[in-house]
Design brief:
Blueprint lengths: L1 H18 L28 E5 L16 E4 L5 E4 L8 E7 L2 E2 L6 E2 L3 E7 L1 E3 L4 E2 L1 E6 L5 E6 L3 E5 L2 E6 L13 E7 L5
Antiparallel strand pairs: 1-3, 2-13, 3-12, 4-11, 4-14, 5-6, 7-10, 7-13, 8-12, 9-11
């Protein structure tokens, strides 16, 4: 008896669940009835990518304590925006670590470490920032693109470094971490 009631209940629930989403409509011959279709679309955030970044080598440049040294970057920033949205703007920022020797026995934090990016190019008509001295010790914005769908490449990049006084001689390096985000963040 219990099995028979359970089977009947399951069959009744299945029948209701199968036909519940449909709207019953009665139309006479020749009448038209409208239905609806809905969809929810989400933006693919992986469609905004930072493909290339410049490097900076102060190795062959004499550096004097407390005197800024400015050099040109090697390579350019390159961004692909395939989000397909009406707002195809983005912001690239950079943050530098402290400088250290390969064995990390010697370190220093620069007095100043800035980066400049001169505009850029894109297939679409776009507006790019010309940021001349973004503070990359603090993770500032270094480049922005407005209405920049497709692939964009920055113009020339520069970096200026000022080291504090009384630094021990050695070969030092720093890691610059670049980030890209949708939308414009003021420099």
């Amino acid at each position: 008896m219990t099995h028979r009631i359970l089977k009947t209940s399951i069959a009744a629930l299945f029948t209701v669940a199968l036909f519940a989403p449909a709207t019953l409509v009665f139309a006479a011959s020749g009448d038209q009835v409208d239905g609806t279709a809905t969809i929810s679309l989400t933006q693919d955030q992986t469609a905004l990518t930072l493909n290339a970044v410049p490097t900076f080598s102060f190795a062959d440049t004499p550096v004097t304590a407390s005197t800024p040294v400015t050099i040109a970057g090697v390579g350019a920033l390159n961004v692909t925006d395939a989000r397909g949205t009406s707002d195809s703007s983005w912001t690239v920022s950079a943050h530098s670590s402290i400088f250290s020797t390969s064995d990390a026995s010697l370190t220093f934090t620069p007095t100043a470490f800035t980066m400049g990016v001169n505009g850029g190019t894109c297939i679409a008509a776009s507006a790019f920032s010309n940021i001349t001295a973004a503070d990359i010790l603090n993770g500032d914005t270094i480049w922005t693109g407005t209405d920049a769908p497709g692939t964009s490449t920055s113009g020339a990049t520069t970096s200026s470094l000022t080291i504090p006084t009384l630094q021990t001689s050695g070969n030092y390096s720093s890691t610059i971490t670049y980030s890209i985000n949708a939308g414009i963040t003021a420099p």
